[in-house]
Automatic annotation (TrEMBL):
Official protein name in the record: Glucose-6-phosphate dehydrogenase assembly protein OpcA
Signal peptide positions (record): none
Domain Glucose-6-phosphate dehydrogenase assembly protein OpcA C-terminal residue range list: 170-299
Pfam families: OpcA_G6PD_assem, OpcA_G6PD_C
Top-rank taxon, per record: Bacteria
Chain ranges of the Glucose-6-phosphate dehydrogenase assembly protein OpcA N-terminal domain: 51-164
C-alpha cells in the first residue's frame, strides 16, 4: 500500500502510517529499529531495494531522506516536504517513508526525522554514496547508534578512507570493511590450521580499492608485519599471500565466486567467496549495533600487533 502526501508534515506522516497499518491489519510492534537512508534521487531506488531486502531479517521503519534541488524560483523560496508512505508488500517486512525535502527544510532534516523514529528502538543512519566528513557530528548521524558509510561509492575512495581515520567515532562503520568479513574469516581459519609465524604478507587488488587498503592495515595491525599492496586487474580484492617459514598461505580469487586456498604441505582447496550484494552487507551490519572495534583498528592500522604475531 502506498500513500502520497504533498506539502505535508511529520504529524500527517505519522497519521498516514497508522492509517496504512490499519488498512492492511499489520501492527508496528514487530519492528526492531529505524533505518535512516540519506541519499539522492539517482541512488534512492537501489538503496531502498537493499533496505527492503535486509528488512526480511531485520524488520524496520525505513526513512529515506532526499534533499531536492530547486527546479524553479518558487522552489527556492518555498520550503516544503513531500512524502510517500509505503506499508505492507510495498515495504518489505516493515515500513518505508520517502521524504523529499525542498528549500530550508533540507537544512533541518533531523527535525523532520526525529518525530518519525520508532520509540525506544535503535537508530541506524546509512549514507549510500556521499557521507558527511564527520558522520558522528552530522545532525542526522547524531541521532544514531550506528552510522554506515561506503567509501567504495565515492570518487576518491582512498582520500575518503583517510578522512574516516580522523573522523572516526564509536558507532561508525563502512561497507568497504563489511565486504571483508568472508576474507577475514577464511584468513583466521587458515592461520589456525597452519600454526606458523607470519614473516611477510601481500594483498592483491584493483587500484584504489578501499577494502584492500583496510585489509592490509588490519593484517599489519594483527600480525605485526609490513603488508605489500599489489595492483591487479581486479575485480575488487583478488588475493592475499602470507609468507611463513614453512611456505605460503594463499587465498586467490582472480574472478568469479570461487577462491582457492593453499596451505603449506596441504593440497589446494576450493572455497566459496562471492561478491555479496548490498542488501547482505546491510543485513550483516544490523546484526550488531555496538562499536566495531576491529574497524577502528583497520582504519588506523594499529593494535596488539606484537602480541597477536607471537600467538599465531
Amino acid at each position: 500500500m502506498k500513500i502520497d502526501l504533498t506539502d505535508t508534515t511529520a504529524s500527517k506522516i505519522n497519521k498516514a502510517l497508522v492509517q496504512g497499518r490499519r488498512a492492511i491489519g499489520t501492527p508496528a510492534v514487530g519492528m526492531v529499529l529505524t533505518m535512516v537512508i540519506v541519499t539522492d534521487e539517482e541512488n534512492a531506488y537501489d538503496s531502498i531495494k537493499a533496505a527492503e531486502e535486509a528488512s526480511h531479517e531485520h524488520p524496520s521503519r525505513t526513512l529515506v531522506v532526499i534533499k531536492r534541488h530547486a527546479r524553479t524560483p518558487r522552489d527556492r523560496t518555498r520550503a516544503h516536504l513531500d512524502a510517500e508512505v509505503r506499508v505492507g508488500a510495498d515495504a518489505g517486512t516493515g515500513e518505508t517513508v520517502i521524504l523529499r525535502m525542498y528549500g530550508e527544510v533540507s537544512d533541518h532534516a533531523d527535525s523532520v526525522v526525529l518525530p518519525l523514529l520508532l520509540p525506544d528502538a535503535p537508530v541506524v543512519v546509512w549514507w549510500p554514496v556521499n557521507a558527511p566528513d564527520v558522520p558522528a557530528k552530522d545532525p542526522l548521524g547524531a541521532l544514531a547508534q550506528r552510522r554506515i558509510t561506503d567509501m567504495y561509492a565515492v570518487e576518491a575512495p582512498i582520500a575518503a578512507l583517510e578522512q574516516r581515520v580522523t573522523s572516526y567515532a564509536p558507532g561508525d562503520t563502512d561497507l568497504a570493511w563489511t565486504r571483508l568479513t568472508p576474507w577475514r574469516s577464511m584468513l583466521a581459519a587458515a592461520l589456525d590450521q597452519a600454526r606458523a609465524r607470519i614473516i611477510s604478507a601481500a594483498v592483491e587488488s584493483e587500484a584504489d580499492n578501499p577494502s584492500a587498503e583496510l585489509l592490509a592495515r588490519w593484517l599489519e595491525a594483527r600480525l605485526g608485519v609490513s603488508v605489500e599492496r599489489v595492483i591487479t586487474a581486479g575485480p575488487v580484492v583478488t588475493g592475499v599471500r602470507l609468507g611463513t617459514e614453512k611456505g605460503e598461505i594463499v587465498i586467490d580469487r582472480p574472478e568469479g565466486p570461487l577462491a582457492t586456498l593453499t596451505l603449506p604441505d596441504q593440497p589446494a582447496r576450493t572455497l566459496a567467496l562471492k561478491v555479496r550484494p548490498t542488501s547482505e552487507l546491510i543485513a550483516e551490519e544490523l546484526r550488531r549495533l555496538d562499536a566495531d572495534e576491529m574497524y577502528a583498528v583497520a582504519l588506523r592500522g594499529e593494535g596488539t600487533a606484537k602480541e597477536t604475531a607471537a600467538h599465531v
